[in-house]
Write a structure and sequence with these properties.
The chain has 202 residues and is mainly α. The chain has a single domain, classed as CDP-alcohol phosphotransferase transmembrane (TM) domain (Four Helix Bundle (Hemerythrin (Met), subunit A)), CATH 1.20.120.1760. It contains 7 helices and no strands. It starts with 19 loop residues before the first helix and ends with a helix.
Length: 202
């Protein structure tokens, strides 16, 4: 029997909702309505861009904390990717509606997200094992988290708007390319995941 002073091990918190990583994810999620309020109700593109950039830059914090301190929960496994997708997709759609970026860029960025999400649902229904995010996928997502806020700031009336717009395009184009490169990488990974998942069932 374990001693009461034995350090908590990975998995102990699997039935807990209130953990630091979960609170971080929920705080990021709560920031999305504030971002929309700043952008559409207050017409504060620059401030909204900074908030969205902060929400995107903290993408790794909750996952890092959970792994670093062994605070993993089933709720966290759900809320973390949901938060990431909500922050990214809502922000991209919002700046498209706002007119800060061209719609072709919005469609190109979101089409990849929809494609990967749909493929994940289909693979899950077919019994495939979970596929980890590739390095290219992480680079692309991180880049888009910065590119779109930069482009939004570039559409504001601040004195350095032109610099933000230039930097935004310099990040957006390669990030978009990386995102489709990562999507192509998932094809062989998906086949392997499907084989492995079915072999375990059989």
């Amino acid at each position: 029997m374990d001693d009461e002073n034995t350090p908590r091990q990975l998995g102990v918190f699997e039935d807990r909702l209130v953990t630091v990583p979960n609170l971080i994810s929920l705080a990021r999620l709560a920031g999305v309505p504030v971002f929309l309020w700043l952008l559409f109700s207050q017409d504060q593109r620059y401030e909204a861009a900074w908030l969205w950039g902060l929400l995107g830059a903290t993408d790794w914090v909750d996952g890092w904390w959970a792994r670093r301190f062994n605070v993993v929960s089933e709720f966290g496994k759900l809320i973390d990717p949901v938060t990431d997708r909500v922050v990214l997709i809502t922000g991209i759609l919002a700046v498209g509606v706002d007119g800060s970026v061209p719609w072709w860029l919005v469609v190109a960025a979101l089409a990849r997200e929809v494609l990967v999400a749909a493929a994940g649902l289909v693979l899950g229904a077919l019994g495939a094992r979970r596929i980890d995010v590739t390095w290219w996928g992480k680079v692309a997502t991180f880049g888009l988290y910065f590119a779109f806020p930069f482009l939004l700031a570039g559409a504001s009336d601040v004195s350095v708007a032109d610099w933000f717009r230039i930097a935004g395009w310099m990040i957006a184009v390669p990030s978009l390319i990386y995102s489709y490169m990562s999507a192509a990488q998932y094809v062989p990974l998906a086949r392997a995941a499907l084989r492995e998942g079915r072999s375990k069932v059989n």
